[in-house]
Amino acid sequence: MKATAIALLAIALQMIGSGHASAQIATLTCPLGSTITHYTPGITNTPKPTTLESTSLLSACVGLPLGISNATITTSGSGNLGCDGGTPFVTTNVVWSDGTTSSAQANNIVVQRPLGQVIVIEESEIISGRFIGATLVRTLTLLQTDFDGCSSPEGVTSVGGPTTLTMTNLL
Asked: Considering the entire predicted model, what is its pTM?
């Protein structure tokens, strides 16, 4: 009888272990960061099919789980983009400071353009890797320093500026 009970317990533990091993409470905030985004071809006043590649370096991360102090985010995407508008379809990959990774898909992107800047608020859901199901909210302020770039034939090919990240996963 004891052998049967031990076997059933082992099977139950295996079943529990095969669930979402990455599901855990996580509330991280990374308030310091910078982003650079490259556009191909450069964006102009006339929206056109464009790809983008972006890299964000974030630091001073605090929260749970303990031990994650920074992150590197790479984003790639495409869409009909121009200096005055367009929202790309993007995929985001995160490498956390402990060497683990997460991949996210954007659910909602809000773009505002006050005073020649581009402020992007991107909400994504982690779909693979660590923290599956968690929500990432990244705020990027892309400073437009090439004021004539939108009117030039080559357009604006890169922008950069500060960024922040918040991640929540409350199971």
From this structure: 0.80
Backbone torsions φ then ψ of 19, nearest 5 degrees: -75, -155
- Tens of pLDDT along 110-127? 888 777 678 889 999 999
Give per-residue pLDDT as tens, 47-71.
Answer: 999 999 999 999 999 999 999 999 9
Among 67, 22, 57, 68, which residue's Cα sits nearest to residue 169? 22
Residue 50: Cβ-neighbour burial (10 angstroms; 0-12, 13-18, 19+): buried
5, part of any domain: no
Q: Residue 60 falls within a domain, yes or no?
A: yes
Return the percent helix, strand and coil in the chain, to nearest 5.
10, 60, 30
- For the chain, where are the alpha helices, taking DSSP H only? 2-17
Per the structure, the complete domain to which residue 127 belongs is given by 22-169
